[in-house]
Design a protein that fits this description.
heterodimer, A: alpha+beta, Uridine Diphospho-n-acetylenolpyruvylglucosamine Reductase, domain 3, Vanillyl-alcohol Oxidase, Chain A, domain 3, 3 domains, eight-stranded antiparallel sheet, five-stranded antiparallel sheet, globular, B: alpha+beta, 12 helices, 28% helix, 24% strand
Chain lengths: 502, 409
Amino acid sequence: MPDVVTEVEQAGPAAPTAGIAAVTACARRLLPVASVITERARLRTYECDGLAHYRVTPALVVLPESAEQLAQIVHACAEHGVPFVARGAGTGLSGGALPHAEGVLVVTSRMRAIREVRPEDQRAVVEPGVINLDVTRAATPHGYYYAPDPSSQQVCSIGGNVAENSGGAHCLKYGFTTNHVLGADLVTPQGDLVSIGGAAPDAPGYDLLGAVVGSEGTLGVVTSAVVRLVRLPEEVRTVLVGFESTDQAGAAVSAIIAAGILPAAIEMMDALAIEAAEEAVACNYPAGAGAVLVIELDGPSVEVAEEYAEVERLCREAGSFEQRLATDPVERALIWKGRKSAFAAVGRISPDYIVQDGVIPRTALPEVLRAIAELSGSSGVRVANVFHAGDGNLHPLVLFDETVEGEAEAAEKVSGAILDLCIEHGGSITGEHGVGMDKAKYMPKMYDADDLDTMQLVRCAFDPAGISNPGKVFPTPRLCGEVPGRRKGVHPLQEAGLAEAF
Amino acid sequence: MPTATLNDTAREAVASACEDVREGGAPDSVDGTPVGLVARPRDTEQAAEVLRAAAAHQLSVVPHGRGTKLTWGLPPRSADVVLDLSRMDQVLDHAAGDLIVQTQAGARLAVLQDVVGQAGQRLVLDETVPGASIGGTLATNTSGPLRMLVGTARDLLIGVTVVRADGVVAKAGGRVVKNVAGYDLGKLMIGSYGTLAVVTEAFFRLHPVPAERRWVSVTVDDPARAHEVTHLLVHSQTVPSAVELDWPATGPGTLSVLYGGTSDGVDGRVKSALRLLGSGASVSDEEPVGWGVFPWQRGQTGIRLTTVLSGLHDVVAAAREVSASVRGSAGAGVLHATLDGDDVATRLGRLREACGRHQGTAVLVDAPVDVKQAVDVWGPVPGLDLMHRVKDQFDPEHRLSPGRFVGGI
């Protein structure tokens, strides 16, 4: 247990240590022994998220079980100026949950109750540690599901989805996490628990929730989310279409969109990505294809039937040489297997790879693909392409072998050049993986100083002390100046005897 | 009212920022608040010049698009300068293949729909107030029947350019639908009543205009029936584009469901709806009268009621009890009500209780000034402290539309 003397003695540069000691003491009062991790070996289990080449060992890991506990821990962090990073399932691909060496990692995996499933209201209320797919599993018996479906949906958590504004294959039609989270309980970086948004639409006041979703944990920690449940479609048809080239496949995508059809998903894979998927999961995609499309149509049966006939014709006219239609869940799963395994599958054809995530206007697809091929050709770095073609979200997989000198650097260079292409074409440096630690350096290429300064006004409003996931998203923090509305009196939790000021 | 700060030097500064500046007269007043100057910038840069001049001279600024909803919210405490965006009326870029449009904020929503309609596309936002601009639609977050289909402005806006109170121009988001780089400032601007910054340009995602549209309507004479019909439709697999209730203060109401899609698809879905609704339902290719338009005239008493779907019956019953006319998206749990006669405070209170029982709110969006001043316009607003902090960062001197918004913001 730290005491006041420790803090005084270590005032100045060593203050974080005293702060960590104080937060540790607070956590020990609130949580079972196993939920407060301080031993270095165990801390190291949390040193990275899904982007494993950034590693930082946190000073403390806590696993709160309730919003109140989490709020008190964050309050203790605020009190002592200790940075904290929230982490859900740790599957993020941009280093958004990378720990802070002098900070606390707040893991929400013990907060995994689905508190309410209310099909009548088309809502569910879930805690941040709930696994994405479990929301759908709980809603399906009532004829409903949770629409955002990132490829990692079997393991990723709602808290992480909210932080990253996760997408998925079906966001072409159904939108992203931000369109499906309607309310939240938020622990502010001061440790206050506030409700924002709500189960009913259009809560009065600023749309704070709209700012929080996708803010990558820099505006606080969500401890409960009200999510929208969507009625299961009457029919789903998934079609796998083989083309000789990505140009043909791209033309088919454009023709479908131009025909006024909005499929639930349109995914594309190029030859190298197909090769990898075949090696990994033997998905039996059309032999010799230069590109495949996975197109999914859903909705009322009659509507789907009519749209399918149109899609079939448009693909044929664009030069498809094979089309396979799946109408039952087993056949559908087979088609999706190749696509969903694509990232991991690349491990079969390359010892190391970078998963890139960039966005371009859909119509720029052929041009950008050619430019990527040129980059690959001139550098000798192989690039496998997987994309959400319907919304122009590219996931180039840049292949390399770390044991060969220079390959990692060359791959990094190609990967960065692909983002430059996205920006040149008016797109984005990330469509769904987030900025996190990995892409903060690219933010000034996409936004100018005034844009970034203005975004950080929001940061200053929520987190003037800059302790909530510092160092992520923005390459340079903004000085917030005077701290508005900073609490002067005694914190209610202290007053209630729940927390103690050191 | 124009403050003492609007002296000759300040007037000159504003006049030199923009070639179209005139003295405010009685017709310019914003909900009863007299206006000092009216500036009509031609582009974002000029709007920024005006805001910089206003900042240098501590002037209050009330932005507006076409001025169709200036009686919404509370009257501004002061309006030294009205920033009228009506000259910024260009639809800048319609990229049909990408299903996106870029527009200036002063463009009328109807004009934008004409432009994108030529390619068989639409911005799925109803023109609930005739003549409304894009900027005003965003600032007040209006929505109509089609919100059931793809949501509201927050679900369609993908990029914004704003001018801050200090005249700095900033953008967020962009021209691609899928984009998680940086904070989504657009969402903060939506429904902010011009109190955070001035939106000057916007990017939206578009949707195809359906080949076929058809309405199925049924008469409802008690709130339980309205509730029941709504739930039959929203929990069906017919994917309604809209489920609207229109119920005048006297007489029966009408519940209408809209289907849009392919020709065979709409046929099939209409048949399914008819099976659900039973005899007495009628089918039409024509939009029902009053479809998508708020049930009150500018400056009359208009209230937005929201509820989770299970509370629909209770909220509609409360509206009947206080003799309110209601029209709105029963399927989304958002109704717009208007009240004739006196005692708005008590009746609003009753409505607020009913909505509150179902996690919803009742907001007095429009009303004569004396009515607004006698009641709590916004009702309880959770998170108000954070909202004040956001305001303090964006507009530390509280010069943008001061007082129009929640909590005196």
